[in-house]
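Ticket #4471: structure export looks truncated?
Reporter: QA, pipeline team
Priority: medium

Steps to reproduce: submit the single chain below to the structure queue and open the exported record.
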Amino acid sequence: MRVAIGVLGPVQAWDEAGQELALKGPRHRAVLARLVVARRRVVPVNRLVADLWTEPPPDAVGAVRTFVAALRRALEPERAPRERPRLLVTEGPGYALRAEPETVDAWSFERDAEAAATLPPGPAAKLLGEALARWRGPAYADFADEPWTRTERARLAELRLQAVEAEAEARLALGLAAETVPGLDAHVADHPWREHAWGLLALALYRSGRQGDALAVLRRARALLAQRLGIDPGPALRRLERDILDQADHLGPGPGGVAQRVWAGASAAYDKAVASGARVRLESTVGLLRGLAVTGGPGLVAAREHRLAAALAAEELGDAELAARVIGAYDVPAVWTRVDDPPQAAGIVGVAERTLAALPPEGYEAARARLLTTIALEARGAPPAAEPGPLPRGRRAALEAERLARSLDDPALLAFALNGRFMQSFHRTGLASDRDATGAELVELAARHGLVTYEVLGHLIRCQARSALGDFPAADRHAGATDSLAERNELPLAGVFTRWYRVLRRAATGADTLAGTEAAYRRAARVLDGAGMPGLEQGLLPLALLSLRVARGLPAPTDAKDTAWGPYAPWILPLVILAREGDDGRAPARAALRALPDPPGDLLTEAMWCLAARAAVDAGDRPTLLRARAALAPASGELAGAGSGLLTLGPVDVWLGVIGAALEGPSGR
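Actual output as written to the record:
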């Protein structure tokens, strides 16, 4: 059972179902709190006695041991009587709490607040909001008067105030000025000595189009600082006041100010000037959907929902040229190789194919290239062809689209076609170098012609490819370039991929313990919440955690936790059977392996084959070992799964060695 411990408020503990655990009396909770303060370090029994009593009773040491025993029963109820404790341990002269950081609210709050400082505004605001939500009241609320909590309470309180202000800064960077005002107003009312907070509130008001209110806030700050502390505002506040009076350009009008008024005016003018049934509205709609898609979250979900409807509406008008423009205008860069909504993707492919057939036979090369690229993108993830023969439709479409695009002087069209080529570059394993070349061409082309979203895509592709090739210094450079471009151009989805890449790097280089890397993956998974990419989110965290275990020779987990495998379930099921049933599971595992389809041709193909190979070795299944060896052999020299930029199972050559040794041993049944 995984226990959560809370000290950001009254000291409490909860089980996995969220039910509060009975910690008995106040001194039991005091022992637990004192061990949390120690942050996994040993607290000697004599120190606990001194902290718990002003005048210790004669049997104080025995009482502490009684408190510890009761806490152990509450925190580890499933532990057998003579089994060693794993959470509250005896070590040397005292006790230590060996909890993982994510299970103690104060520790996870501090960790996430620190991590948010390295993220773009969107993920940072989300992570800080989650971190601040862990506070249920003042830290160690029921031990506020104890000397041993004083320093820690003050430190956590200051970190909380900093996190509130950092979240406000991130929200301001996202253009949420008006929404940020109420929280900042309450914050400065409670903490009037925090000049930075006053400045943020004034800036939020200014960017909401409330210049007068912004100046009034700064005057209020001046008066309160003088009354309560006897000081004048510092240079930063004085400079901000001057800048607001001057309407300095560097303050930015914010979406709540000039930009919002421009948008409202333009929208109203469009509604008046363009008839509701006009065909041009369909093309304008796709332009809006394209902009929505790159914002991530609800915007991406809405864009997907309306995109197929717009394409079908254009097709119904019977104008193939218009339909081609509407379908092809949705040239949103894509880096993840599994579709988020397969039925919708099939619908897009269908309307694109029909429109392609309806175009006049001569001319319209650009329209054809866009339709073909759309087909290539939406048909991604098909299993690699096992036998020679005609190329799959998606790959044929990608090759023809690229040929047409290269014959035209249209950089944006070529960038779109290169995205299609990338998505169709998984017809076999071992093509990381080819994808790296595609990414390099995209970066150069996009940088030269100001195609920012494709420049980001190129860097992400190169980050993935260099990871697959084990070149992490180069991958780091591309991740850094991605973050820089994304922050300057408000592209929050890019940060999801770079956040996961940095955890992959830790896993691949052994820069952390298993527990530490698992915790980092759990933190990275939080940024997927609400990102609008279910095809990426489903099953990814459990798969990443499993990859850590399998790469270290550990069995798959068998309990219900972290086992929502999503689309990866068929390749994981044999491992779960073996972990759960031991030798008795060999026959059913072999049956599952022999029914196993080839994995989709995507960024995780090698990872799926490695999982199948691990199960085949343990189950003695020779046919699957032969299939896995044939599939993995072209990827010799790469890191399995690392091309995803998300996870890895280690060098492919190691897996080929494991498979070879198993094939040379006793024959699988």
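Status: closed, not a bug. The export was complete when the record was re-opened. Leaving a note from the reviewer for reference: The chain has a mean pLDDT of 88.
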